[in-house]
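Task: complex structure prediction.
Instruction: return structure tokens for all chains below.
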Amino acid sequence: MEETEPPGGALRRLPWLVATSQLLGLLCVALGAVWTAYFRGGFAWEGDLLFNVHPLCMVIGMVFLYGEAILIFRIFRNEVKKSVKIIHGIVHVGALIAAIIGLVAVFDFHQTKGFPHLYSLHSWCGLGVVILYFVQWLLGFGFFLFPRAAPESRSAYRSIHTFFGLALFVLSVATATMGLTEKLIYAIGDRYGEYPAEGILANCLGLALIGFGAAVAYVVTRDEWRYRRHDGEEAPLSLHFQRFSDERAD
Amino acid sequence: MEETEPPGGALRRLPWLVATSQLLGLLCVALGAVWTAYFRGGFAWEGDLLFNVHPLCMVIGMVFLYGEAILIFRIFRNEVKKSVKIIHGIVHVGALIAAIIGLVAVFDFHQTKGFPHLYSLHSWCGLGVVILYFVQWLLGFGFFLFPRAAPESRSAYRSIHTFFGLALFVLSVATATMGLTEKLIYAIGDRYGEYPAEGILANCLGLALIGFGAAVAYVVTRDEWRYRRHDGEEAPLSLHFQRFSDERAD
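Output:
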């Protein structure tokens, strides 16, 4: 069933909002990289610098790539559904790999330093989010890609998948802001109150994470930009990408 | 226009979900009270205990009452719209008063202790949320209650009001979890890693806040429980409340 297109005005706003979300997403990764590489001393797979792998991987995986995977159904809203689903799944695999590297880094760091594990609210939320995210990935894979459930089950699960997908993404952003708060107080402590460059930059990273989360949530919850269902699912992705580019050029 | 009722199964789930949200909301207030009154030493309008007014008022105002105000359109979904709007507005006034007391407490506390203001990510987000929340309250009042905009403007603004209302509520919950993290590290520091009762209780408060936020978001974003529009808006609230109670008793 080809759904009716929303009025042109609503469609013209989509590329601008997607562009804004992309700028905010890239800003998150850039500020995360500057904070860990410049202010926190860079990366290593041992010693003090091992910790820095954790926030950067989490920002890249559980915020940036996770958000991109959600947005894909709006960016390629005229594409063949199967192709879009496969890209959605692949981007989520990337997010999961980054998250696992980030988790291994922080557990390893705590282990070698003799720090206790899993005592803070950030750590409880973080572990919970990654586990639920993995369960959501498995269910999504099973229902929508392989083995692929019956149409009624797919339809019933779709609304749960989209709600919990977005809810976990938002919780992931919130968990990142808690982790940022925790690390800043442990690392710079009382100096935080003197408005140092590191504190300001890390706060801006927090605002960028929240802004990216809000932009993704806004784009995916508007009715007018929902994915269009197609009868014929054969048109190549590249052709449709051309159409999306044309729309952007409007 | 009287909208078609969703199937009975979907309606029967609503009271259970509302009950769950209420239990989680009350748990937030209870855990917030135990944490500040028992573990942090209670309340006073001067000295060290002044600080404790801040988290408790923020949990009551910007989380619990804010969430209740949003849920009201689902709890009283069969009521006369004007009555529900007025209750929605009144509960939001309560939330705003609690938030202002909470803000005055923390600014006063910082002032008398000589602590710097507004340096942390929590403080930036918190101040931003309260200001935007107040703007949203004013716009809602102007568009929907007094002076009341033209139907087309109301309808155009309604989707913005509901999105930003929920988004600011979620940001408010996230800001609370950041504040909790900040205060715990400043107050119990290294002991946090020894799994003390205070740390566990405060982490549970954080989980309750997130749970309440998720329950509210779930109930208000499901299509099947949207507020029903009425042609005749005269039926008394009490009559409809009776109807809601009957549904719950099913």
